[in-house]
UniProtKB/TrEMBL annotation:
Belongs to the aldehyde dehydrogenase family. It comes from Alkalicoccus daliensis. Part of the sulfo-TAL (or sulfo-SFT) pathway, a D-sulfoquinovose degradation pathway that produces sulfolactate (SL). Catalyzes the oxidation of 3-sulfolactaldehyde (SLA) to sulfolactate (SL). CDD domains: ALDH_y4uC (cd07149). Keywords: Oxidoreductase. Its EC number is 1.2.1.97. This is 3-sulfolactaldehyde dehydrogenase. It comes from the Bacteria. One of its GO terms (molecular function) is lactaldehyde dehydrogenase (NAD+) activity.
Length: 483
């Protein structure tokens, strides 16, 4: 039976609005149209940003206790509607229903953390009398909201990655204008629904939908946008930097995440963790495992067990409780992954498992002997493909792990604390997970990378620091301190 196609409105400055022109949202599993969403223009986006800025300047302050309550009520609303949110994530994107439920739970946590962190936006006193002649001065600094935040979000975590930008922005007292990925806008609009029900003040949140090239241009260049928070590809990130001018920028731009498995590792734990880290969300995960470096005495056993466990993964209907992996976000992406794998095979790589495509589905794929000249080796695959490589030592593994222009997160499996700390100190990444694969994350930790992997850090408290500015207050007293 044909699914009923939803007609969805945008959330703009406290109102749910339509547009004359719309675009379709499709389920990548079967190309079925599931919704029609407003397709807005750059001119309209400009008016939205102007309205958000007007709201910011017209409200002298949004009290901390009110920000906390709104964020906690929004988390409560999502929790009460947990299955509806999960179903939406699964239908419009690549995640299985099980993975989607996990994302909803994380989004609830992100909003709750944001509400808690709102109370912890603090400053410090300053000892002005450290300078001679300033004995009669005292003061402090506090943090204040910067103004309109533009949030440009990707398709792979269409609810929680939006919450990671909206939650801290609102906690800090900033209006935020969200441009979600055009292939997965419904989850972002559901987040707006939760915050609307929670009582977010008019003008503090807008979710606008439409073409990224058109709306993104306005969000990046509009003078009233004071910070851009972007998650996406390196090329798009570079264009934003070129056009943004004097704005604060926070970016997470992906990775090519390595995991190191040493001879003393727990073999079964390492295989289980890295298989999950490589193929969750069909490999469309910025911290997903892409390269695994295994010490030579363990390599054959690891590779055999890894391929066997990969073969056991169930690929199919996203809404089935038994499915481990769904499709990629569209057939174009699946064809790109197929092209990269075929290119590697033509240059000498061997496929241990997988390597076949059907529509938007691409089998979880394991390769060995991938030449370092292949795109699959040095670029982000963003698909269900992992490379296994034999190394002679920890030092070689670290050197090869660093030999790409990305550095978001890495993992290492070892029982030797000295080896673990060697990796911690020498891997060029934003995070090292010891006895976990690279894709482990909690929503409060600082999250971000080095090299092409981004600028700044997310994670609620750290995002709030980026979305506020310090203001110094110095008071010259008319009477000296001493009596």
């Amino acid at each position: 039976m044909q699914t009923k196609v939803l007609s969805v409105k945008m959330y703009v400055l406290g109102e749910w609005v339509s547009q004359e022109e719309t675009f379709e949202v499709v389920d990548p599993q079967n190309n079925e149209v599931i919704a029609r969403v407003p397709k807005t223009t750059r001119e309209y986006a400009r008016k939205v940003i102007d309205g958000a800025a007007e709201t910011f300047y017209s409200i002298s302050s949004w009290p901390t206790h009110e920000r906390m309550k709104v964020l906690q009520r929004a988390a409560d609303y999502i929790e009460k509607n947990h299955e509806r949110y999960a179903y939406t994530i699964a239908r419009e994107g690549s995640k299985t229903i099980t993975e989607a439920r996990g994302e909803v739970s994380r989004a609830v946590q992100t909003l709750r953390i944001s509400g808690e962190e709102a109370r912890r936006i603090k400053g410090e006193t300053i000892n002005f009398d450290q300078k001679e002649g300033s004995e009669n001065r005292t003061g402090y600094y506090f943090r204040f909201p910067i103004g309109v935040v533009a949030a440009i979000t990707p398709f792979n975590d269409p609810l929680n990655l939006v919450a990671h930008k909206v939650g801290p922005a609102l906690a800090a007292g900033n209006p935020v204008v969200v441009k979600p990925a055009s292939v997965t806008p419904l989850s972002a609009l559901l987040l707006a629904e939760a915050l609307d029900q929670a009582g977010v003040p008019r003008g503090f949140l807008s979710v606008i939908t439409g073409a990224g090239r058109e709306l993104g241009e306005e969000l990046v260049t509009h003078p009233e946008v004071k910070m851009i928070s972007f998650t996406g590809g390196v090329n798009a990130g570079d264009k934003i930097i070129d056009k943004a001018g004097r704005k604060k920028i926070g970016m997470e731009l992906g990775s090519n995440s390595p995991v190191i498995v040493l001879n003393d590792a727990d073999l079964h734990d390492a295989v289980k963790s890295t298989v999950s880290g490589a193929f969750s969300a069909a490999g469309q995960n910025c911290i997903g495992v892409q390269r695994v470096f295994i010490e030579q005495n363990l390599f054959d056993d690891f590779a055999a067990l890894f391929a066997e466990r990969t073969k056991e993964l169930q690929m199919g209907d996203k809404l089935s409780e038994w499915t481990d992996m769904g499709p990629l976000i569209n057939e174009t992406e699946a064809k790109r992954v197929e092209e990269w794998v075929n290119e590697a095979v033509s240059e000498g790589a061997r496929i241990l498992q997988g390597g076949k495509r059907e529509g938007a589905f691409y089998e979880p794929t394991v390769l060995v002997d991938v030449p370092v000249s292949c795109r699959l080796y040095y670029e982000e695959i963003f698909g269900p493909v992992v490379l296994l490589e034999e190394v002679e030592s920890l030092q070689e593994a670290v050197s090869r792990a660093n030999d790409v222009d990305y550095g978001l997160q890495a993992g290492i499996f070892t029982k030797n604390i000295d080896h673990a700390f060697y990796a911690v100190n020498h891997l060029h990444v934003g995070g090292v997970m010891v006895n976990d694969s690279s894709d482990y994350r909690i929503d409060e930790m600082p999250f971000g990378g080095v090299k092409q992997s981004g600028l700044g850090r997310e994670g609620v408290a750290h995002s709030i620091q980026e979305m506020t500015e310090p203001r110094v207050v110095c008071i010259k007293l008319t009477q000296p301190w001493s009596v």
